[in-house]
């Protein structure tokens, strides 16, 4: 049986990689993948504590988290397509030039 500390270490590593990607990259696809890494890190935490304490609540919340991640990808890819169509690039700093 693997201890919870290893799951927490894996989750912290994934979250840090995702946070680094969000803070340093300008490409919208990399940004989207980094947010997915952070959501998966949260899901690992939920499942690890669910296993540790013997409740299914964490697994249920992880399923809702996966549904949220799937919806976020669908909406994010739609936004990326609109960005590419309007600006010819998927740089996330390009829409800041839009004004009222």
TrEMBL record:
Gene3D superfamilies: 1.10.287.3510. One of its GO terms (biological process) is ATP synthesis coupled electron transport. It is a multi-pass membrane protein. GO terms for molecular function: oxidoreductase activity, acting on NAD(P)H. GO terms for cellular component: NADH dehydrogenase complex. The chain crosses the membrane at residues 6-23, 30-49, 61-84. Coiled coil: none annotated. It is an enzyme of class 1 (oxidoreductase). Its EC number is 1.6.5.11. It is found in: Membrane. PANTHER family: NADH-UBIQUINONE OXIDOREDUCTASE CHAIN 4L, NADH-UBIQUINONE OXIDOREDUCTASE SUBUNIT ND4L. Belongs to the complex I subunit 4L family. This is NADH-quinone oxidoreductase subunit NuoK. It comes from Halapricum salinum.
